[in-house]
Amino acid sequence: MSVARNTRTKKAPGTPKPPGKNAKKATPRHARGGRAAGPAAEPALHRMDLLESMLRIRRFEERCVELYSAARIRGFVHLYIGEEAVAVGVNEALTPEDAVVSTYREHGHALARGIPAEAVMAEMFGRTTGCSGGRGGSMHLFDASHRFYGGNAIVAGGLPLAAGLALADRMRGQHRVTCCFFGDGAFAEGEFHETANLAVLWNLPLLLICENNLYAMGTALERHEAQTDLALRAASYGMVAWAVDGMDVEAVEHAARRATEAIRAGAGPHFVEARTYRFRAHSMYDPDRYRDKAEIDRWKARDPIDQLMARLRENGELGDEELAGIEQRATHEIDDAVEAAEQAPEEPVEDLLRHVTSAPAG
């Protein structure tokens, strides 16, 4: 693991709607948008919450595959399957007052942030009850009430936006963190380098989470980056940066808490490289011919859900009955979300110019 420590001493100045009727415990902890007070008093219960959150995201994504294959949802769909530990672990360290900026692979981030599955699914269907009013679809989930600012389709496009949010908080003297998720492909974009540079110069309360899944679309990391230790590269800007096992949700949570506590104390931007892997292709359109099946199988053997499940079973904290309850809650919630989305209205044609042009002056 590469760790670089920042020697700078400059301080920052002034340093919904519930789920479906059958979802008895569908949004355990993440519906509160994360919390900074630390894990639950009972570690076993906290780990169960982490497992339920990851399983909920996984089942949601798997249902999206079914719906897309049946042409019930359309457009581009980028699945998060395999990376659930990053979204869940990081959101554990955030509070409802913090902000989150995401990528086009953001279903897991949105659900972990607390956006109801019903609102996310309706957006997938392009219905008016979606979190973006049915206009954003899979790549542009947005919910200001949860301080979730995209869903951005442009690679690295969320980074400057996150810097702006963090700068606004610093200038207003608000002790909040802006968390920006992005992939390893963003390192090839100028937006990352510009954002990293300004974040350190301005001592911004910014948490940069790089989800390094080894592939920028179909291009392997070693084919587009001469230095593949991304945490080391980020540290070159003078920020604290390190790597973490992105397949271990507890390790991710620990890293995110360490970073957010330092940021809140005025230590400036922090960078965490979560080394993870997507089990599915880049998108539903991708034939996925650039990866070796044996490589995929090796990473699947480190499935973050299976790893935590095994840990819980080994500790005597998870039995078949508890697991069945978690699965049932997730199934009921997603069933209800799909049913609600299918019954929700589409935007009427006469409203299509709403929010596109402003009313004439006077």
Structural Rg = 20 Å
Number of strands: 8
Biggest sheet character: 6 strands, mixed
- Helicity range: 40-55%
Q: Note the total helix count.
A: 12
Order of helices and strands: EHHEHHHEHEEEHHEHEHHH
Shape: globular
User: Strand sequence of the main sheet, in spatial order?
Assistant: 1-7-8-4-3-2
Name the structural class: alpha/beta
Distance between the termini: 61 Å
Average pLDDT level: 89
Sequence stretches where pLDDT stays below 50 over 5 or more residues: 1-37
Q: Beta-sheet strand percentage?
A: 5-15%
List keywords for this structure.
single chain, 362 residues, six-stranded mixed β-sheet, two-stranded antiparallel sheet, 12 helices, 8 strands, 41% helix
Description:
Helix 1 packs antiparallel against helix 11 (304-314), helix 2 (84-92) packs parallel to helix 9 (249-264) and helix 5 (158-172) packs parallel to helix 6 (190-201). The chain has twelve helices and eight strands. The N and C termini lie far apart (61 Å). It has helices at 43-69, 84-92, 107-113, 117-124, 158-172, 190-201, 221-224, 230-235, 249-264, 293-300, 304-314, 320-343; strands at residues 3-4, 99-101, 178-183, 206-212, 215-216, 219-220, 240-245, 270-275. The strands form two sheets. It has a six-stranded mixed beta sheet, with helices on both faces. It has a two-stranded antiparallel sheet with strand order 5-6. The radius of gyration is 20 Å and the shape is globular. The chain has 362 residues and is α/β, with parallel strands linked by helices. Residues 1-37 have low confidence and may be disordered. Helices cover 41% and strands 9% of the residues. Strand 3 (178-183), helix 6 and strand 4 (206-212) form a beta-alpha-beta unit.
